[in-house]
Amino acid sequence: MPEKESKAEQIAARIALSIDEGVLAKGTRLRSLRAAANAYGVSKNTVVEAYDRLIARGYVEPRHGAGHYVMGVRPQPTDPITARQAEAVDIATLLHEQLEHSFTTRLGDGRPPAEWVEGSVLKSHLRNIASGHRGLFEHAYESPIGFMPLRETLSRMLDERSIAVRPENVLLTLGANHAFDLIIRQYLRPGDTVLTDSPGYYPLFAKLKLAGVRMEGVRREPDGPDPQDLTQKAQATGARFFFTQSLAHNPTGASLTLGRAHEILRIAERLDFMVVEDDAFGDLMPPTAPRLAALDQLRRVIYVGTFAKILSASLRVGYVAASPEVIGNLTKMKMLTIVNSSGYVERIVHTVLNDGHYRHHLKRLNGRIKNAHLAAVRTLRKIGLRPWLEETDGYYMWVTLPDGVDDIELTRRAARESIFLAPGSVFEINRATEDQGHLRLNVAYIDDPRFINFIERELPRQSPT
């Protein structure tokens, strides 16, 4: 049985209704506490509580020594889905939705379902970490470069990928995005030009825009960045940095081939620019997969990794592996901007990596991704959507929309039904040159019946190619 409203709430609701309907105009003085108590047949304390509720809700303002006055008609609350559908297509809003989780169906999500990662390795072990390790938590500032045992573990893990790096050349960060932020702050200035994958990682685009840095998109092909496009744009702009994701590329799911990796490094050497290699899915990929950092051995490659996509987005731990000079500069920048990262969280990640369960977790996660990928391909064929690539790595598929379909408008229509899509335009630098729209879809959610029903209603079927 619902709880009966208090007298104070009844009075507050009556006054609020009068304000909403315009009976009490802006600037009207409410009854004094004594007069209101007599009018409503309650105590002065009840009136005080009612007026306090109106103040908290923005209906009334108190004026010292003069009473309580109406602030005006409050705008009526907008339906939450309608509010977020309006412009749920730009970089900030796309990122916000991935954090807030207000949509029901989550095709545009950048991460897998929580039960794929956190439920399989974290929940069963984190409860025992603090109690099982008395020295786990220290109450003191620590080195800004990060928790030494975790850097030693990362050094061994990178060695398995043929990236020879000492622990002192690994800097711990608050995830990959923090690593990008440090690199941008240290090496780029407003007006500089950088090269990035296009399509590419949209939060990076936002950081570069915020820093006043111009971007030139390098066309992404199934086997990696287009060497001809990279050469042309590097020569035309004089860019000193190229940001790229080699494996399980976000948003296309494509991975770099060995031959293409050699071409990229030859171009970087000839035209003298640095490469920032994002390996967000590194632990899911084979150690022998082609990596620019392995071929270059960190001479002109800055290598960025993270655990957010594989363990938990709440464990904000990432890292940079680079030359001693670069790590020294980035460590100083980290110290000046945030002092140091979380030693507590770094110890937790270190324990998870070393307790014997992490490799089993990766095997199980890869199995889930593979099964979801096979189901996604079947579903896309059924509903007449064409993936850019059918054989991809990681969580994403880059899906080509039928001719004439606007990805932004489609995203808005989906939002009206609480379906979260990631429009391809957000991932594109060279939007004007793209002749067809795309969506980035998370393979974990493609077989959702609500999404299937939406696509079958909203889109014309594509002819088979």
TrEMBL record:
<dbReference type="InterPro" id="IPR051446">
    <property type="entry name" value="HTH_trans_reg/aminotransferase"/>
</dbReference>
<feature type="domain" description="HTH gntR-type">
    <location>
        <begin position="5"/>
        <end position="73"/>
    </location>
</feature>
<dbReference type="InterPro" id="IPR000524">
    <property type="entry name" value="Tscrpt_reg_HTH_GntR"/>
</dbReference>
<dbReference type="InterPro" id="IPR004839">
    <property type="entry name" value="Aminotransferase_I/II_large"/>
</dbReference>
<dbReference type="Pfam" id="PF00392">
    <property type="entry name" value="GntR"/>
</dbReference>
<dbReference type="InterPro" id="IPR015424">
    <property type="entry name" value="PyrdxlP-dep_Trfase"/>
</dbReference>
<protein>
    <submittedName>
        <fullName>GntR family transcriptional regulator</fullName>
    </submittedName>
</protein>
<keyword id="KW-0663">Pyridoxal phosphate</keyword>
<comment type="similarity">
    <text>In the C-terminal section; belongs to the class-I pyridoxal-phosphate-dependent aminotransferase family.</text>
</comment>
<keyword id="KW-0805">Transcription regulation</keyword>
<dbReference type="InterPro" id="IPR015421">
    <property type="entry name" value="PyrdxlP-dep_Trfase_major"/>
</dbReference>
<keyword id="KW-0238">DNA-binding</keyword>
<dbReference type="InterPro" id="IPR036388">
    <property type="entry name" value="WH-like_DNA-bd_sf"/>
</dbReference>
<keyword id="KW-0804">Transcription</keyword>
<dbReference type="InterPro" id="IPR036390">
    <property type="entry name" value="WH_DNA-bd_sf"/>
</dbReference>
<dbReference type="Pfam" id="PF00155">
    <property type="entry name" value="Aminotran_1_2"/>
</dbReference>
